[in-house]
Amino acid sequence: MVTKSVLVSGAGIAGPALAYWLHRYGFRVTVVEQAPAPRSGGQAVDFKGATHRLVLERMGIWDEIQRRRTGRTDVVYVDDADRELAVMSGDFTGGDVEILRGDLTAVLLERTTADCEYRFGDSVTALTETADGVYAEFANGPAETFDLVVGCDGIHSTIRRFAFGPERDFVRHLGYYYCVAGASAYGMSAGHTERGRALAWNRPGRSATAGGSKASQLYLFASPELDYDRRDLAAQRQLVAERFAGVGGGVPGMLAALPTLPDFYLDSLSRVDLRGKYTRGRVALVGDAAYGNTLGGVGTGLAVVGAYVLAGELAAAGGDHTVAFAEYDRIMARYAKIAGTANAGRFLAPRTALGLRARNWFLGSRAFDLMLRYADKAVNDIELRDYAVELGLVAER
Predict the structure, then answer these.
(1) In Å, how far are 77, 207, 221, 269 from 344, measured between CA atoms?
(2) CA 239 to the chain's CA centroid
(3) CB burial class (10 A; 0-12, 13-18, 19+) of residue 349?
(4) I need a surface site. Which of 21, 78, 314, 356 has the fewest CB within 10 A?
(5) What are the extents of the domains in the chain?
(6) Residue 214 pLDDT more than 50?
(7) Is residue 290 a contact partner of residue 278, using CB atoms and an 8 Å limit?
(8) Distance in angstroms (rounded) separating the CA atoms of residues 211 and 329
(9) In Å, how far from its chain's centre is CA 274?
(10) pLDDT value, residue 193
């Protein structure tokens, strides 16, 4: 069994998923997370296809995800009088199974906190690679040396910046911002398996969606890159209110409720492009830090598959990161193409009235069904090694 040490930055989804597999293969794992505690709630995330299910079953968490799942939610686009214009099926937005991000994180933490060291309320402030490891400095603790470092810290990854370079070199702004507020993106809560319904109001370049009596909200709006204080939530709420001022339908009621809703989050729609190279030296990236595409619909699945592949390749290579990282890059460069060039902003909030009408037509067309079939095929377009069987940790399956 391997006994190398690995520092994982980020305790969202990719980080704990990677920690699970690394510990199973004998690595010593430390996970550092800037937030003071695990985040609860958050928007809904989903898994789709046999590949995602296979990884979750091998982790032993598929049944628990099913228990905590939310119901699918149809998004109904309406005019200002709430007359139906088009419907985006919950089968498209919710995959095969949907779960709140915070609930998924809780499931992963439940299976890793006893075996891996978690340090909440801390972050990496510097990395220095040496011949024998990576010297990591921390905001709130003494420096340490690890054999490997993995960034699972999202599109705005600090680890990527240290190892690869400035964010502007690898992250492309897609011309839109999004805001989520409330228990989930569309208002379904854990354990609710009935089908939900959310209403969406559009203006060119703007979309506002509400579910659960406006207790959960999703906003999208077209905009060049903005300069705002990420710590000033009140100012961010005001920014959203200004962007949607004058939009009719249910939007005034949404904006009235916005100041009181928890789990507020505003960020740009962005896509990470590392050109298929997610490793450098002794540092690797997993999840949105490596192949993120905001609201692209496959980010969570890519994160758990990427964590499975990286840990498995490291174990199969006996901890030799030079061999394992090359294989991880090769496998994920092909599979991560599923994130592709999609821009959810253009689809959910077209910039012109003609674009809105075309989108509404598309949702009810045969072309939309064909797109769904293509997406289903793409998420399964990978052959996963059964690393645990190869390493003799479990019997032949």
Answers:
(1) 16, 11, 11, 8
(2) 24
(3) buried
(4) 78
(5) 5-390
(6) no
(7) yes
(8) 40
(9) 17
(10) 52
> Contact at 8 Å (CB) between 22 and 311?
yes
What does the alpha-carbon distance between residue 130 and residue 135 come to, in Å, rounded to a whole number?
A: 7
Strands (E) across the chain are located at 5-9, 28-33, 44-47, 73-78, 84-88, 97-100, 117-120, 124-129, 134-138, 144-146, 148-151, 171-182, 196-203, 206-211, 216-222, 265-272, 279-280, 283-285
Query: What are the pLDDT digits (tens) for 151-183?
Result: 999 999 999 999 999 999 999 999 999 999 986
> How distant, in Å, are the alpha carbons of 29, 345, 347, 355, 356 from that of 351?
46, 9, 9, 7, 8
Residue 156: count of CB within 10 angstroms of its CB: 17
> pTM here?
0.94
User: Within 13 Å, how many C-alpha atoms sit on residue 359's CB side?
Assistant: 24
DSSP 175-231: EEEEEEEESSSSS--TT--S-EEEEEEEETTEEEEEETTTTEEEEEEE-S-----TT
What SS3 class is residue 42? coil
Let me know: does 150 contact 310? Beta carbons within 8 Å.
yes
Could you tell me the two tokens for 387? 């690393």
At CA 140, angle to CA 155 and CA 34, rounded to 5?
25
Task: Assign a CATH topology to domain 5-390.
Answer: FAD/NAD(P)-binding domain (3.50.50)
Structure tokens at 6: 């690995």
Strands 148-151 and 5-9 turn out to be parallel
Tokens describing residue 248: 């009719």
